[in-house]
Write a structure and sequence with these properties.
It is a single chain. By secondary structure, the chain is an all-alpha fold. Helices cover about 55% and strands about 0% of the residues. The protein has 2 helices and no strands. The radius of gyration is 26 Å and the shape is elongated. The model has no long low-confidence stretch (mean pLDDT about 85).
Length: about 70
C-alpha cells in the first residue's frame, strides 16, 4: 500500500470537522427550506397522480375458490 499524503490530510481535516460539529458553539444551519408556491403545488399534483397510478397497477389478491 502506498502512502497518499493528500488522502491522509483529507481524512484528518474531515475528522476534525465531524468532531467539531458536536461542539456547543458550532454553527447551526436552519433545516427550514422555503419553496415557491408553484413548486409546492406541482409536487402535490404529481404526488396525487403517482398515487392514482399506483392504485391502478397494484396487484389484487387472488380469488380462491372455497369448497361449498
Amino acid at each position: 500500500m502506498t502512502y497518499e499524503p493528500t488522502a491522509a490530510n483529507l481524512a484528518v481535516e474531515l475528522t476534525r470537522r465531524h468532531a467539531g460539529s458536536a461542539r456547543p458553539d458550532a454553527p447551526v444551519e436552519s433545516d427550514q427550506r422555503t419553496r415557491p408556491a408553484a413548486t409546492t403545488a406541482a409536487r402535490l399534483r404529481l404526488a396525487g397522480s403517482l398515487r392514482a397510478v399506483a392504485g391502478w397497477v397494484e396487484p389484487r389478491p387472488a380469488k380462491v375458490c372455497q369448497p361449498g
